[in-house]
Amino acid sequence: MNTVHFLALEQRGPTLIISVLRNVGCFSHEEFQDEWIDLLKRLDDPAILNVIVDFQRVAYFGSIVLEMALHLSRRLQSRAGRVVLCNLSSFGVDIMRAAKFDQLWPIVDSLDDALKTL
Predict the structure, then answer these.
(1) Which of 33, 72, 111, 112 sits at 20 to 30 Å (Cα–Cα) from 85?
(2) For the segment 25-41, what is each residue's pLDDT rounded down to a tens digit?
(3) Domains of the chain
(4) CA-CA distance, 52 to 109, in Å (whole number)?
């Protein structure tokens, strides 16, 4: 059986970059659970202060990604960390604006812009 990966994680200094690899509009929590657990373990590292969620590879995403971003933001609050979103499609930006998440986190055009924002 092949393992499907939904996220790629890369750490650059105090920043964890989470790249969403697949359109995740309809996968279940069960499919995502192992990667979610791995992500939370990475966030236990006190050296991680910020998270960038990079949507370059996807045009749309489901509510599970919104939940993920909220959860990550809450975990980083105690460290005064930040979440930045980048490379969203126009549809993705519309979703974030409709949910008013653009008021919680910066939305920028590129990964380079996200790194500069931090």
Answers:
(1) 33
(2) 555 566 777 888 888 89
(3) 7-117 (3.30.750.24)
(4) 12
- For the chain, helix, strand, coil in percent to 5 are 40, 20, 35
Residues 113 and 2: their CA atoms lie apart, in Å, by 34
pLDDT in tens, 76-113: 988 889 999 999 999 999 989 998 999 999 999 999 99
33: nearest Cα among 68, 75, 79: 68
Burial of 31 (0-12, 13-18, 19+ CB in 10 A): middle
Cβ–Cβ under 8 Å, residues 105 and 77: no
